[in-house]
Amino acid sequence: MVDETLRTEALASKAWPFEEARKLLARYPDGKASGPILFETGYGPSGLPHIGTFNEVLRTTMVRQAFHALSDQPTKLIAFSDDMDGLRKVPDNVPNGDMLRAHLGKPLTTIPDPFGTHDSFAAHNNARLRDFLDRYGFEYEFASSTEYYTGGRFDEALKLVLRHFQGIQDVMLPTLRAERRATYSPVLPISPTTGVVLQVPAEVVDADAGTITFVDEDGQRIVQSALGGLSKLQWKVDWAMRWVALGVDYEMAGKDLIDSVVQSSKIARVLGGRPPEGFNYEMFLDEHGEKISKSKGNGLSMDQWLTYGPEESLAFFAYREPKKAKQLHMGVIPRAVDDYWQFRANYPAQDLKQRLGNPVHHIHDGNVPTEKLPVTFGLLLNLASLPGVGDAQTMWRFLQRYDAGLSPEANPALDRLVGYAVAYSRDFVAPTLVRRPPTDAERVALTELDAALAQPVEGDDIAGALQDRVYEIGKAHYGKEALRDWFKTLYETLLGSSQGPRMGSFFALYGVDNSRTLIAEAMAR
């Protein structure tokens, strides 16, 4: 049953999942007559799945969850793999490229797996995607284009396409260049001799019987059924046919597919169907500002992110500002981790309206975990990057000295972050650190800081007391308006970085004696 208090707030919430979910309420004011509200995501397994692929399933799931707060109508999510597409080019980031090159043009499910672990290239990439979706706990039904075509599930819809062949041409041909118009066909036959998905003109012989005619690669004219996997549809036609055949109600797509959405929507109407609701999100970019590509392998893989940060941080990064292009590279992981935990820490004290606008509500579908984080991920990274500290056991010794009540067993989320911090610091932080010698003026300030750290601390808030001492010395030497320069001095001389943590917290975690040793080492340079 829908919680009416929650529903009332969700109907007014400006959080984008609720805005999207309200489109489905408007689509069926009296409820859908039959079957569940159907959400769909698409995946082209011509390359290894990347975060952009996961992102679409995640965001669609968030809209689906938001809809559950508004309606008790049943829903279903299909993760559809376009694995019958012909391989157009060999990806840069897979082995055995020469073998793949020999199979160009063939459906991805008929091409051997270059990794040697699955029955086909598509099966390998589909498995990688499903493993990750399952790891995250998505509720979805996986669908294979090849299985739907060859199993006859699309046969009636294919006949519908043949019956409206000219109407589809009338939509598509004006959008194509002259040379493409000469060879364009909504239906792509599979060559009976080579197994290649042919980009050749096809003509309808008998729409009700599902037969077409075309010229094969050897120049022979063939009359062949378009059903049962002997043909597939051109991309935009295929998308529209799928919407109509399956009754898709919601599907989002990247900004690069805006024209595809427009044309496929027109074709869906030609076929007598209704295009789904949805919106166009902006693309993820790599560190150079270029669009992430499965074939190029630029950007991050899901496995790479999860080596250095938890699933929640990836979900947080994907949730924020879906209509704004964002760079996706290793450097964004620490900020995403800390931002996620900051929003999670805010959640318990927020009212319902604020909670519905908090990203963690949508990441956890309202069931936000209660474990608190005693230190930031950034602070863990700084600690892990120091000499002799870069392993989990040593990190925990520092944490337990900082707070005797902490333990891996009692703080499992913190324990996971310790592992991520060790890995990230080892691979990306420690190799870049250069601790510079202080200037003469900085030496004076550092000497005073050392003396201040040597004084005993009263009270339980050791980090706060040490931060006050750092602050006062900075004001005395740099002025209140230039404290940023003081902290930069500390980061560069003690930690070897241009930015860093709240220094009082760092000194408390690392220990006063160890922190004074850092100062002494800096003074000795």
Q: List the uncertain runs.
A: none
| Largest sheet geometry | 3 strands, parallel
Structural class of the secondary structure composition?
Answer: mainly alpha
Number of helices: 24
- What general outline do the C-alpha atoms trace? elongated
The residue-averaged pLDDT reads 93
Layout of strands and helices, then pairs:
Elements: H1 4-12, H2 16-27, E1 37-43, H3 51-70, E2 75-81, H4 97-101, H5 121-136, E3 141-144, H6 145-150, H7 155-163, H8 165-172, H9 178-181, E4 187-189, E5 203-206, E6 211-215, E7 221-225, E8 231-233, H10 235-246, E9 253-254, H11 258-270, E10 280-281, E11 284-285, H12 302-308, H13 311-319, E12 326-327, H14 333-346, H15 352-356, H16 359-363, H17 377-384, H18 392-402, H19 412-429, H20 440-454, H21 462-478, H22 483-495, H23 503-510, H24 512-523
Parallel strand pairs: 1-2, 2-3, 9-10, 11-12
Antiparallel strand pairs: 4-8, 5-6, 6-7
Helix pairs in contact: 2-3, 7-10, 8-11, 10-11, 13-14, 17-19, 20-21, 20-24, 21-22, 21-23, 23-24
